[in-house]
Design goal:
Number of domains: 1
Radius of gyration: 28 Å
Strand content: 35-45%
Number of strands: 12
Strand order of the largest sheet: 7-8-9-10-11-1-2-3-4-5-6-12
Distance between the termini: 22 Å
Number of helices: 4
Length: 249
């Protein structure tokens, strides 16, 4: 639990005045005045398709109070040529709450609430209760990437957007937005949003890919969506095992 420069050419109109006729006797007559040229009506610029797609995402999720889904995560570490896969259930609720429950054997739990992010990682050895990492919500990488789900920001304010070739990205029936943060972000270099473009689901994000500066890719595929189901506040009051090691970042 993602710039099109539009240019317009304006034609220039020039009026040509004929030379004045000179009478055989008397002073020269002034040239007859010409009617002023009329500039063509300015046509409205075409909307930026990337910004239109980004707006559809913002609009879709502004209509939701909470959203839950099943997720399948694929993390590709480019340096070590390693791929890790996991799955689970995620819930988002405005403002600024989320919870990720990873299915076993992973068992990780991520909870964001009250400005804090808790990440619980179970121990790998028998008797090991694991550890809990706590950090400020604003300093984590997921919140900005998922801000449209959390109701904590405006995508157009935080990102520059462009559309990629959806067919080439394997999402021919929708749109693929590439988003780059307007301010440098230490956690990721760009985001890819795979967005529904059908009339009924326009703006729904089916997949998010987070790409960091090293080329590592963290991909989330979402399914089985539920919207505005009244997720209780207690969902985000989860507490880790009391004897788990605590790490503050």
């Amino acid at each position: 639990m993602s710039k099109i420069l539009v240019s317009r050419a304006f034609p220039l109109c020039f009026g040509l005045c004929a030379a004045a006729a000179v009478h055989a006797q008397g002073t020269p007559t002034a040239p007859a005045p010409t009617a002023p040229a009329t500039a063509p009506a300015q046509q409205p610029s075409a909307p930026d398709p990337a910004l239109a797609a980004l707006s559809s995402v913002q609009t879709f999720y502004e209509q939701t109070r909470d959203v839950s889904a099943e997720f399948f995560q694929t993390y590709v570490n480019k340096l070590y040529d390693r791929t890790d896969k996991s799955r689970g259930h995620v819930v988002f609720k405005k403002p600024g709450k989320m919870r990720w429950d990873y299915a076993k054997p992973n068992g990780k739990v991520i909870v964001a609430s009250s400005g804090k992010l808790l990440v619980y990682e179970p121990g790998e050895e028998p008797g090991d209760k694991g550890q809990v990492l706590e950090q400020s919500f604003a300093q984590a990488d997921l919140p900005q990437a998922m801000s449209f789900l959390l109701g904590t920001g405006k995508l157009a304010d935080d990102f520059d957007a462009k559309l990629l070739d959806a067919a080439r990205e394997g999402f021919a029936n929708g749109q693929v937005l590439e988003l780059r943060p307007k301010k440098p972000n230490p956690h990721f270099d760009r985001l890819l949003f795979f967005v529904e473009s059908s009339a009924a689901l326009r703006g729904l994000v089916r997949r998010i890919v987070i790409v960091d500066a090293s080329g590592n890719r963290n991909r989330f595929d979402f399914s089985a969506f539920k919207f505005n189901s009244g997720t209780p506040e207690s969902t985000f009051e989860w507490r880790p095992p009391a004897d788990a090691r605590k790490v503050h970042l």
